[in-house]
């Protein structure tokens, strides 16, 4: 089981990189409770998200993430949704089962720690994991959805 990852967040001006570590189950449950359905809902509450990201990423992460959100409001729902999905799937070793998380996105896992302690890039990472390409793709899919609603 993978215990550590590198997560990247793409913005127009900068690519941020953060370490992400998988928590012992007791630590996770201590914060979010025993019931996993409740845990998913709680991850959408800032109070719980702050505590989990403090443990998994860094104590200052959520403050930095909100600065990113303030500067990138056009894609705010993508940033938020992917962050929660990545945290949850990394914690329960199901990340590899979700093909959507392997597609170019504004928030993604770029590397994992192998069994000798080296970080290795995931094989799906390519030149499409770049802000302009992802933003263009998201903008065009949003435009297509808006056109369908208008018809």
From TrEMBL:
InterPro entries: DUF1473. Keywords: Plasmid. It holds the Pfam family DUF1473. It comes from the Bacteria. This is Uncharacterized protein. It comes from Borreliella burgdorferi 118a.
